[in-house]
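Our consortium's second objective concerns turning raw sequence data into structural hypotheses that experimental partners can test. To show how far this objective has progressed, the report includes one record in full. It was chosen at random from the queue rather than selected for favorable results. The single chain below, 182 residues long, was entered without modification.
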Amino acid sequence: MPLLPDVPPLVADDRGNALVSFVRGTEEVPPRDAPLEAALVAVRRADRVLMVFDRRRRDWELPGGWVEEGESPREAAERELVEESGQRTDGPLRFIGYAGFVLAPDRRAEYAALFAGRTTTIRGFRPNDEIAALCWWNLRDALPGRVQPLDACLARLAHVTGDRAASANGAPAAVRRPGRRP
């Protein structure tokens, strides 16, 4: 089923962007009904998730960005994590799923691969042209400024999925929203 602009979103922001699906599955078989353009990373340290403050969009987001030519989504996630935050995970990134978006202003559909990892070490951060700050968010308390609601939703999905995967020692069953495909 293709990503359609008229599908009720899981979450939307005030700029017209919407998260319309989240597909768990295998990293090797991405959805084919829209381009896979980006990769995002939810890094946990204890009970907190790494967020970066994007200078242009003026909001807190998960680290991530475009998948470059010849690069896998996993390679893009690893590269973007270091470029945007200076952080590294203690082990390999874990694939979580594919987030389906309909993005403003042209209502284009695309996917982003979502990965997760853990770290016990906070590395030095140097603000750059793209990212002004980073923080470790507990997913409950307000952050100073705007939190991108699509990324907050994905951070929670990655957090829950990580807990289930750790307890089940494998991939969790898909969480479905009634009346929607996973």
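The partners drew two points from this record. The longest helix spans residues 149-168. The first strand starts at residue 11 and ends at 12. Both points have been shared with the crystallography group to help prioritize constructs.
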